[in-house]
Amino acid sequence: MKRSKAVRPLLWCVVLVLCAVGCTGGGPGRPEGTAAVRPLTGTQLVIATGVDVTGDNGVRKRLVDAWNTLQEKENSPYRARVVVLPGSADLQRSQLLAAMQSGSATYDVVNLDVTWVAEFAAAGLVRELPEAYADDGDVLTKVAATARWKGKVYAAPYNSDVGLLYYRRDYLVDDAGIDGKRVDALASGRTTWEDVSSLMDAVDAWARADKSDRSKNYRGAWTSQLRPYEGLTVNGTEAFASAGVRFVDDDGKYTASSGELTKGVAEFRRRTESPHTLDAAFESDEAATLKDFAEGRTAFLRHWPYAYGTLHAALGNDKLGVAPLPGAAVLGGQDLAVAANPAMSGERVRKAQELVRFLTDRTSERCLLDAGFAATRKSAYTDSGVACDDRGAVPRAAASPEGGSGMPRDTAGRPLYARSTLLPALEAAALRPRTPLYGAFTQAFTAELSRLHGSVKSRQVSDEDVAQKLDEALGNVLPSG
């Protein structure tokens, strides 16, 4: 208990910052600039991005500083600066689209959520890049796919993301008395949702029988981001993908049938309508679910990798566990693209591409992993010859308190769970629908799924009827296959 109280200011600092962002795989931090920038002139390259989960002097800023230091050493006049777009992910997307379509944008490099790449590419707002930017033999296969649209490369994978299952080891073992072998199976990813549901039953049974203050704080077995926003889309997509549903083909055309959608609705309902789900989950985002889990109101949490450092600081090894999400886990993350601004000279384009390569190379990806992000390259997880220290201008990311320096690490300094849990989860992850109309998809998808947790009457609607309405809604916003 003393440990938890000591780190609580750190936890709530991070939680408050997280409230400003959506489910993008990016993260929070204080802006280093504003969305209004000077006209595109001279030798200053502007990177438009969301906020950084690793803090005020986070790893992304330090990598940009390292590139600037390199330019100075090479007597290059070019320098890069970061402009942080305010607001939620949806608002950032709208700002970027409006500015770039109107021609008023002065951005050289844009940091895109992986679900936006197809839209920006189809609209001609970002430049085609050489194949090696997406895949040079080291980038994870599923991650590399996010940088392509219709067989062409338009971005370079920057940081990835994937859904993980966090659990309270103290609730499972100390309180509910669950056998250690079952917990070990959970940690190794050898579990199904049925297995996890059985563990939830055991914790629920303990909470009903126990009369301590600790059990009184407990409210439900698991929580996730089920408020009607991108968090609901992610959770829904994971359930539908686990049921074998694919919404669109490689060209972004709608291909699902009512019968397939019925299976997805049934799986989503099974996960969210059980007595295990925390009531607050249906109004919760990343920050709220993190808070509920850390304060002990629930035993299981679906969240992103960046939460690991914060949760470990609050709970420690004895209380915190992390495992691959049973079934399909959705791939998140962000990719860097070079703006297709006709005002950019050939030299400026070349330097912008050079900047993108630097920020996504093997060393930078190792730095991102050390700081708490999910790296996009396999070498960051497996190659002992790649270290963040190789980038002398960048302080060791693991030493950053914002990056969760207290988390357990392997002998090479990586987060201890990175190779055994995070890497396999990324390799097995499911992609969200790849379509230039992703915004329309997610709006229609969340509108229909959110009805399942509305009135008593709406909850009684059959899976087939829900699937039929969802089929109609998606068919209205997506081109048919």
Please outline the helices and strands.
Blueprint: H1 2-18, E1 44-49, H2 59-73, E2 79-84, H3 89-102, E3 109-113, H4 117-122, H5 141-145, E4 148-149, E5 152-153, E6 156-162, E7 164-168, H6 169-175, H7 180-188, H8 193-209, H9 213-217, E8 220-223, H10 230-242, H11 258-272, H12 286-294, E9 298-303, H13 307-315, E10 320-324, E11 331-338, H14 346-359, H15 362-371, H16 379-382, H17 418-427, H18 438-450, H19 456-459, H20 463-477
Parallel strand pairs: 1-2, 1-3, 8-9
Antiparallel strand pairs: 3-11, 4-5, 6-11, 7-9, 7-10
Helix pairs in contact: 1-12, 1-13, 10-11, 10-18, 11-20, 18-20
Molecular structure report:
It is a single chain. The protein has helices at 2-18, 59-73, 89-102, 117-122, 141-145, 169-175, 180-188, 193-209, 213-217, 230-242, 258-272, 286-294, 307-315, 346-359, 362-371, 379-382, 418-427, 438-450, 456-459, 463-477, and strands at residues 44-49, 79-84, 109-113, 148-149, 152-153, 156-162, 164-168, 220-223, 298-303, 320-324, 331-338. By secondary structure, the chain is an alpha/beta fold. 44% of the residues lie in helices and 12% in strands. Residues 1-40 and 393-405 have low confidence and may be disordered. The chain contains 20 helices and 11 strands. The longest helix is centred in the N-terminal third of the chain and has 17 residues, at 2-18. Helix 1 runs antiparallel to helix 13, helix 10 packs across helix 11 and helix 10 (230-242) packs across helix 18 (438-450). The N and C termini lie far apart (56 Å).
